[in-house]
Design brief:
By secondary structure, the protein is α+β, with helices and mostly antiparallel strands. It is built from 24 helices and 11 strands. The strands form 3 sheets. Strands 1, 2, 3, 4 and 5 form a 5-stranded antiparallel beta sheet that branches. A 4-stranded antiparallel beta sheet has the order 8-9-7-10, sandwiched between helices. The longest helix has 35 residues. It starts with 5 loop residues before the first helix and ends with a helix. 50% of the residues are buried. One of its GO terms (cellular component) is plasma membrane. It is a multi-pass membrane protein. It is found in: Cell membrane. Pfam families: MMPL (PF03176).
């Protein structure tokens, strides 16, 4: 008898020494979590995140060593009609006097009227660290509110980066808190419905949460090698809950199925380890490969997400192979307690003749078209998915701008009034110049001339007050000019103004200055440059993921055809998700339904992130389903019988896992910001399509059509067939018909 697989040996040791395995897991999680907190988080800097010309501009600005204090504004406008100059002056003087007494205010500038005379702006400079200004802005807001009370005939409001930041933190903080509070009960509720027993439902959640805790600590340690970003923890939670619940669900379902056949607890755990445990290792490897592809993007954000995701998937795989068998062995039949009466009768494993699980009725009905008319079913289903994917050809990528932030807060409503009255306070481009110190005067003259030419162009907004403000570093080597545009950051006009600066105005102004180096950055530049970066890197990342996944699948299933069809089906699933995303978010028909304002584009970072996440998570289902099909093949079934057996025996657990993911991802679609809405809808829709149309229609029709060719492989790839269990699963003649 050959050496048993490592998954079985690990499971047997854990099942025979459950308390040791559980204790080791608890210690591992605690050490990771505590060690990570002790090491502290190393966050990515602007230098780490520099992309394209925008990144070069930021690096030039940073090299100037400018002190950039946080700034705020008090905006005074009429409640209706025209502004009364005398009343506005009285309110501005009152605001100036009060704010100068507030702790945290470094200075208050002179009141500045708008060009149309219908608004007055009082600029405020805050003291202290600008990074913490949002946490210290409330006393200023309180003072402005008192000014408003003293001048009820006017609208007096505060607006600026810190106050907007605080308002958004409050709004988004409530959003995320609600999402976190909802995700756990939603997951538990779905698992209770899937298992019909509370303990069985709690085990996957317990493993997922402990995996997330361990990965959080490990990612903090890893941040000293690959700097972390502020989105890393959220992605670890998202991916960790998804794969942790999936892997446990696959394992627990198979263990319960084997016990229902009459196997002992230890035998049931071993069979689950040999089948579902093996599938967990393969699917985990596929997810890790997908996430590793993000490292090729050479982007601090994606590198951070890749490291966090790889760690949480690896920990979830280890947990499912070690502590999960220990828990199942220790719980025994208690895993099915306490039972939820009605749900238990619906979900409990049923045993039919010959000790085999009773056949479900729903999935055989779904499978009939794929098994009886595979070519027609394949053509129709693939045609529908390709039609759904077609809109992706028109995908446009942009960063969300200030115009995409929800207008439910007073701060954002004030921002709209500010940019309407003072356009130069809205969207702007940053012209960053570095030259030898002895050329500082020439650079200053060139930038002054540039600002003058821009002021005559309708694509740009004229400078407010005394004219263009050019910042010069202490060593006189770095000069910075802000050139405003009156258009919102995502508009075509804002994009044209950027290109006019980069291709015409800036080169013409600085031409001939010895040793000059320049770049144009800002919000519009960040959006354009990052979109170019994504389009350039996406083919490389996709090629890496596809190639390595193909090799893993070919080696695992000893079949080139299975590996190739796996890749094609996942590409079809990802394409359909892209198309659906474009269909929903690049138009305006779903705005009222989903509560968003269309930005006529997809958030820049989403396509690459969605590709690797969907490719990895989709492979979970694919590996699990094809593993069950291969079981049937190795035990003597015909290809059609094996397809029927594999789909029907795995449909319940795949559906349950998909519903958990769809439920959790859908919660993200309820958040206020457009990027999380797109992420939630994209992930939920893709998983739903993958677990239904792809796995229940396209896969069985394709594998039925290919027949024995599914398992073709070159001689060097063919492995020795695994020894089948003593009791082969019964075929499903009602599905395949008489032969």
């Amino acid at each position: 008898m050959g050496r048993r697989p490592v998954t079985v040996r690990l499971a047997r040791w854990s099942a025979e020494h459950p308390w040791r395995a559980i204790a080791l897991w608890v210690v591992f999680v605690a050490v990771c979590f505590v060690g990570g907190n002790a090491a502290g988080l190393n966050e990515a800097t602007d230098d780490d995140q520099a992309i394209g010309e925008m990144g070069r501009a930021q690096l030039i600005v940073d090299s100037g060593g400018f002190h950039e204090p946080a700034t705020e504004n008090v905006l005074i406008t009429p409640l209706a009609g025209k502004l009364d100059p005398a009343a506005a002056k009285a309110a501005a003087d009152d605001a100036t006097a009060r704010l100068r007494q507030v702790d945290g205010v470094a200075s208050v500038g002179a009141p500045m009227p708008s060009r149309d005379g219908n608004a007055v702006l009082v600029p405020i400079t805050m003291s202290g660290d600008p990074e913490t200004a949002a946490d210290r802005v409330q006393p200023l807001r309180d003072t402005t509110a008192k000014v408003q009370e003293a001048h009820p005939a006017l609208r007096v409001e505060q607006v600026g980066g810190p106050s907007i930041g605080k308002a958004l933190d409050d709004t988004l903080g409530k959003d995320f808190k609600r999402a976190e509070l909802l995700s756990l009960p939603v997951t538990l509720a779905i698992l209770i419905i899937a298992f019909g027993a509370l303990i069985a439902a709690g085990v996957p959640v317990l493993l997922a949460l402990s995996s997330v805790a361990a990965a959080m600590g490990l990612s903090t340690l890893a941040s000293h090698l690959v700097p972390a970003t502020d989105t890393t923890a959220s992605v670890i939670l998202l991916i960790g809950m998804a794969v942790g619940v999936d892997y446990s669900l696959f394992y627990v379902r198979r263990e319960r199925e084997e016990r229902a056949k009459g196997r002992s607890g230890l035998d049931a755990v071993e069979i689950a380890a040999e089948t579902s445990g093996h599938a967990v290792v393969v699917s985990g490897t596929a997810v890790i490969i997908s996430m590793a592809g993000l490292l090729l993007a050479q982007d601090a954000i994606f590198s951070s997400l890749a490291v966090g995701s790889i760690l949480v998937v690896a920990v979830a795989v280890i947990g499912s192979l070690t502590v999960l068998p220990a828990l199942l062995a220790k719980l025994g039949r208690w895993v099915d307690r306490p039972r939820v009466p009605l749900l238990w009768r619906l979900t409990a494993p049923r045993v039919g003749r010959h000790g085999q699980p009773a056949r479900p009725r729903f999935w055989p009905a779904v499978l009939k078209p794929a098994l009886r008319a595979p070519m027609a079913t394949l053509v129709v289903s693939v045609g529908l998915l390709l039609a759904l994917a077609a809109p992706a050809l028109g995908m446009k990528l942009k960063f969300p701008g200030m115009e995409d932030v929800p207008r439910t807060t007073a701060a954002m409503q004030a921002y709209d009034r500010l940019t309407a009255a003072f356009p130069s306070n809205g969207t702007s481009h940053t012209v960053a110049v570095r030259a030898p110190a002895d050329q500082a005067d020439r650079v200053h003259a060139a930038l002054t001339g540039l600002a003058g030419r821009a002021a005559t162009d309708p694509l740009f907004a004229p400078a407010e007050g005394d004219g263009p403000k050019i910042k010069v570093s202490e060593d006189r080597r770095v000069s910075v000019l802000e050139v405003a545009t009156p258009y919102a950051s995502r508009t075509d006009e804002a994009s044209r103004s950027l290109h006019e600066l980069r291709q015409d105005l800036v080169p013409a102004a600085l031409n001939g200055i010895p040793g000059v180096e320049y770049a144009v950055g800002g919000g519009v530049a960040a959006s354009e440059d990052y979109a170019d970066h994504i389009w350039a890197k996406l083919p490389l990342v996709a090629a890496f993921v596809l190639a390595l996944t193909f090799l893993v699948m070919a080696w695992t299933f000893r079949s080139v055809v299975v590996a190739l069809t796996s890749i094609l089906l996942n590409l079809l699933s990802a394409g359909a998700a892209y198309g659906l995303l474009v269909l929903v978010f690049q138009g305006d028909w779903a705005e009222g339904l989903l509560g968003f304002t269309s930005m006529d584009a997809i958030v820049t970072w989403l396509p690459m992130f969605l590709f690797v996440v969907l490719f990895g998570l989709s492979m979970d289902y694919h590996v699990f389903v094809v593993s069950r099909i291969r079981e049937g093949i190795r035990q003597g079934m015909s290809n059609k019988d094996a397809v029927a057996y594999g789909i029907t025996s795995s449909a319940g657990v795949v559906t349950s896992a998909a519903i958990v993911m769809v439920g959790v991802f859908s919660i993200f679609a309820t958040l206020s910001t457009i990027d999380f809405k797109q992420l939630g809808i994209g992930l939920a829709a893709a998983i739903l399509l993958d677990a239904t149309i792809i796995r229940a229609v396209v896969l069985p029709s394709l594998m039925t059509l290919l027949g024995d060719a599914n398992w073709w492989a070159p001689r060097f790839l063919r492995g020795r067939a695994a020894t089948p269990p003593a009791e082969p699963p019964a075929p499903a003649p009602e599905l395949v018909g008489a032969r």
